[in-house]
Amino acid sequence: MAANLSTQVQGGVGVTEPGISHEEHLHHDDHHHDQHWLFKYVFSTDHKVIAKQFLITGIFWAILGGTLSSLFRLQLGWPEATMEWLTPVFGKWIEAGKLSPDFYLALVTMHGTIMVFFVLTAGLSGTFSNFLIPLQVGARDMASGFMNMLSYWFFFVSGIIMFSSMFIETGPASAGWTIYPPLSALPQAIPGSGMGMTMWLVSMALFIVSQLLGGVNYITTVINLRTRGMSMSKLPLTIWSFFLTAVLGLLSFPVLFSAALLLIFDRSFGTSFFLSDIYIAGQALNHTGGSPVLFQHLFWFLGHPEVYIVIMPAMGMVSEILATNARKPIFGYRAMIGSLLGISLLSFVVWAHHMFVTGMNPFLGSVFMFLTLIIAVPSAVKTFNWLATLWRGNIRFTTAMLFSIGFVSLFISGGLTGIILGNAALDIQMHNTYFVVAHFHLVMGSSAFFGLFAGVYHWFPKMFGRMMDEKLGYIHFWLTFIGVYLVFMPMHYVGIAGFPRRYYAWTGFDSFSQFADLNKFISIAAILAFFAQFVFIFNFFYSIFRGRRATENPWRSTTLEWTTPLHPGHGNWPGEIPAVYRWPYDYSKPGAEEDFIPQNVPFSKTQSSNLPYESEME
Amino acid sequence: MSTISTTQPLSSADAADRPRSGNWDGGNEPFKASYGKLMMWFFLLSDAFTFAAFLTTYGLIRHRYPAFDAAAGKVFEFSTAYWPVPDKVFDGFPGLHGQSVPLGFVALMTMILIFSSVTMVLAVEAGHRMDKKDVQKWLLWTILFGATFLGSQAWEWSHFIHGTDEGTKMLDGTTVYGANLAVNQYGPVLFADLFFFITGFHGTHVFSGVCLLVWSFIATTNGTFEKRGHYEMVEKIGLYWHFVDLVWVFVFTFFYLV
């Protein structure tokens, strides 16, 4: 019996006898071998290839987004320094040895847009939902491989448009990633409100189509394509988080689509949905009756769920990695699902906490404050569950584990300031300062990045059949972890001192001069942390080709993706898809032969570790 | 080898090793719906949020303007000072120039669209019976009603754009006939903006629906669905079509009734 179990563990597909003539087997495996490379690697419908496409495109965007932030940190840290040396690259954007202020606005706008949408939405969900959903629920592929492929290519075209907008004469969109009208609605307002803004809107419309195509696929796959025995209460938490993330995207992105479409009409066809009573350069515009606050409502109806779209996949992956590497069942599996559901639900009723000072009715503000602070409850449930999972665990400090622990740390540090900012009264002081910037960069920006890194380090062996280098991983982790805190901790102080966001320079204010050193410090830390990412990039690409060869289940994990062959083909399992008998967290079960029991091992094979009721289970 | 059943893996011939097989236990379709149908449902849910955002926009802007106060004893006339009364704006009917038929034409349009939903149901039902002839017949009726609705909307738009014979005298002394995105004889410009935008967005949906119906009619005629063994595609397009009808009921309510 023990021998049988271990073949299942190592061989992965122990429940299947090779050579069984099986309908799905024939259907999925035999005609994929002689595919043209164009359909195998480029226009592929295989979810694993699409996931890698999303990941590598995401890495491209992350490098770009990080570069932009280094540029504006240069400006903020050394406002007097000459930037002449950048002229060969940026041409007229460097005016008299300085970054032009318009260029600065373009930099922060594109940094936000790229990081939020292209990296942490498409790069994160796109990669891991695609990669893990079919593998972990036990499916051959996504429900519709073709739509999945379209999802990537819509994202790609959307990216091409966004990228091109950075090379046009008037520059890319510059109204901030939230593109509030009237600034974004009036092409004559600033250079960035011209062609660049139009391209931003078109790009985002295509991006939303991509999200929709991906989202319906993720949801449908989780509902319909789970393997035999994989009930919703046996799903790994990764799948729960991807599933709910897709639901959030499905319900919130269409509202951004509405807002973008209305804004396009305001910009290009003379309507006044978001415009009223505006003088520009002494000229009264004939727009009347619209409401810019309406745009903010529509935008944040997406914008708030969006931060959960960014963080929830990271939460799911971290839960999985913490349990695997603590060799313990996740603490409070059902509470974890419940808190994900709670967060998903609440995320739709808190959007106006981004708008406390917009002139919205203060009574409405207190309702939104109340709802916002309730989010602390499911968030705390998750945090305590993670900590309880670690407690007295048999911890293995893999790189992925370090990043997961780092995620929990950042989520706590950033979450605490959320309680401050969620207060309508405190927000009057804090809004639009660097305190806000520090808050969301910790709680969703850096945390989601840590989740992304954890995911890449953990599932790299399944993606490429090789391991990433652990030493480089450690270096990457410590530089990034320390770097992130050195950047964002001081930023809270700068924010409390009243530094507003999106200002090109503060040299005109005497009261701010005492913080010049702190700003320099933040800039140095930010640029160093950015360069530390190249350790990861080197490690990633080097390991794809030269990394140590992986085994089938290197982390001794319980979930189904590790029962596939080292290089799973299109269709994932060469034989029949394994059936599932148990939850995904049977780590260190007392009485078990090994310290983990994969989900596809029936209870009849594990009599020694079964709990009384389990022996009677089917 | 081929005698081994596909539902029972070899190593679990023992009955106790079979995984659970409840409705939500995996290996089946818990909503008894194929993935394609589920996807259509989720797309519609998503699209409903898009329309909800537009109708919210309508509601919010509508309430930034006062309504016409009939109790004050004044006779209604078009003015940018208040939101127009729909009965007065939409009172034209093809062939009855100069006569007032409040909401008559739009009522007809709405009836046509609702009828198209009925014929769509019949097409889906015929598909369940694998009755190719009937599917063709009812699809054709649906296409006809859908196209008629689109034509009627074109007339409605053109009537709205051209305006009344008298026009409306604006505050600056000019007389405005009809409406476009920048001027509006019937009331605030935003009334026209919203009318064009929302009915236009709905019309685009109807147009896409008609295109899908035409495509499925061709596919039915070619026997594509017959070969496939089911007319599920017709059913999925049917879901979309009913959704578009349902949205029209809301659009109709917002623009014409309240």
Folded structure, characterized:
The complex is a heterodimer of chains A (618) and B (258). Chain A is mainly α and 618 residues long. Chain A has one domain: Cytochrome c oxidase-like, subunit I domain (Cytochrome C Oxidase, Chain A, Up-down Bundle), CATH 1.20.210.10. Helices cover 61% and strands 1% of the residues of chain A. A two-stranded antiparallel ribbon of chain A has the order 1-2. A two-stranded antiparallel ribbon of chain A has the order 3-4. The N terminus of chain A is likely disordered. With 258 residues, chain B is mainly alpha-helical. Chain B has one domain: Four Helix Bundle (Hemerythrin (Met), subunit A), CATH 1.20.120. In chain B, helix 1 runs parallel beside helix 7 and helix 4 packs antiparallel against helix 5. The N and C termini of chain B lie far apart (70 Å). The N terminus of chain B is likely disordered. Classes of the chains: A mainly alpha (618), B mainly alpha (258). At the A-B interface, helix 8, helix 9 and helix 10 of A face helix 1 and helix 5 of B. Chain A: Keywords: Electron transport, Heme, Iron, Membrane, Metal-binding, Respiratory chain, Transmembrane, Transmembrane helix, Transport.
Strand percent estimate of chain A: under 5%
Major sheet of chain A, described briefly?
2 strands, antiparallel
Find the count of extended strands of chain A (DSSP E, 2+ residues).
4
CATH architecture call of chain B: Up-down Bundle
What is the overall shape of chain A? globular
The low-confidence parts of chain A are: 1-31
Q: Which percent bin holds the helix content of chain A? A: 55-70%
The count of β-strands of chain B is: 2
Cα radius of gyration of chain B in angstroms = 25 Å
- In CATH's first tier, which class of chain B applies? Mainly Alpha
Largest interface pair: A-B, 65 and 54 residues
Shape of chain B: elongated
How far is it from the N-terminal to the C-terminal residue of chain B, by CA?
A: 70 Å
- What is the end-to-end distance of chain A? 18 Å
